[in-house]
Amino acid sequence: MLERWMKRLAPRGHCRLALSRTTMTVRRVGASRKVPALFVERPLPEAGTPEVLAAAIGAALKESGGHGLPVHASFADELARYFIVTPADNSRRLQDLRAAAEVRLQMLYGDDPARWQILADWQAAEPFLACAVSRAWAGALQAGVAAARGCLVSAMPEFVAAWNRSRRELDAGTWLATRGERALTLGLIGAAPRARLAAVRTLALPEPAPSLGWLRQQVARMALLDNLPAPAALLLHGPRCEPWLPGATDFTEPGLTVRWAESAERASVGGGPLAEPAAPLAWSGTAQ
Predict the structure, then answer these.
(1) Which of 10, 14, 66, 176 is the one with CA 20 to 30 A from 112?
(2) Residue 78 burial by CB count (10 A; 0-12/13-18/19+): exposed, middle or buried?
(3) Rounded to an integer, what distance in angstroms lies between the CA atom of residue 182 and that of residue 109?
(4) Among candidates 154, 282, 171, 170, which has minimal Cα distance to 237?
(5) Does 152 lie in the same domain as 103?
(6) Residue 98 sits in which domain range?
(7) How far apart are the first and last CA of the chain?
(8) Where are the residues of the annotated region Disordered (predicted)?
């Protein structure tokens, strides 16, 4: 039923909604390339209640012309908790894996699992990536989209979205990163017995555009702490940083190189605005 509903609305386009702790952006994309995308950016109130956040989200969707359209949402990494879960040897059911993820969340962050919505690439035979988003934020998003008569097709944190798009390009020599306003989220890739996500770390940015030398030092430090060989390259999602681009002064010295991933909007061109593959780590508006 959802698929038929989306096909019926596809000619009208869809919305991409991005949420951070202080800002919300909505990009309404039309089905035709001749129709320019409409971009709306609004500040979010500090310590806003879920009701206030939902009202702001609904108003921004309506202002963008996204009333009644499918919505693809993303959360800034600062709103998410990332962690690797090692399942117990006797784990057989999804309930066992969920329990292990809840224990891991509480142990690492001291958070009450009941207040967080956890999604993961559930695996019973090997460690897996999990992330959690506050139920207050998730509920506000769902209520805001509903207020605009839309359909929440998918919602995921930025690092998860990057992992879903780029995981086939990663190996022990190429790690993943997403760049936010104040921090870099780094995905460390282990080699044996096959390429896998070994850890997720957050690096606070000392300034908006730190040097490539700083980045190389931090990545090497993370590799040393997790007993992994340092990568040769970093596949980065997010705003471009001039000191990290080819041609910067530090690029004359050997070491880690940075390449930027194609944006989600550009990646979808040619396959239709809703042609993204199903993501292993995502939830829809109907998921609980």
Answers:
(1) 176
(2) middle
(3) 20
(4) 170
(5) no
(6) 78-134
(7) 18
(8) 267-288
pLDDT in tens, 224-262: 999 999 999 999 999 988 888 876 555 556 789 999 987
What type of residue is 53? L
Burial 227-239 (b: 16+ CB within 10 A, else e): ebebbeebbbbbe
CATH of the domain at 233: 3.30.420
Mean pLDDT value of segment 128-157:
95
Amino acid (one-letter) located at 40: V
Tokens linked to 93: 């059911």
Domain containing residue 44: CATH number:
3.30.420.40
Does residue 142 contact residue 73 with C-beta atoms inside 8 Å? no
Residue 161 lies in a domain: no
Residue 240 resides in a domain: yes
| Claim to verify: residue 182 and residue 130 sit in the same structural domain | no
Residues 80, 124: Cα–Cα separation, whole Å: 23
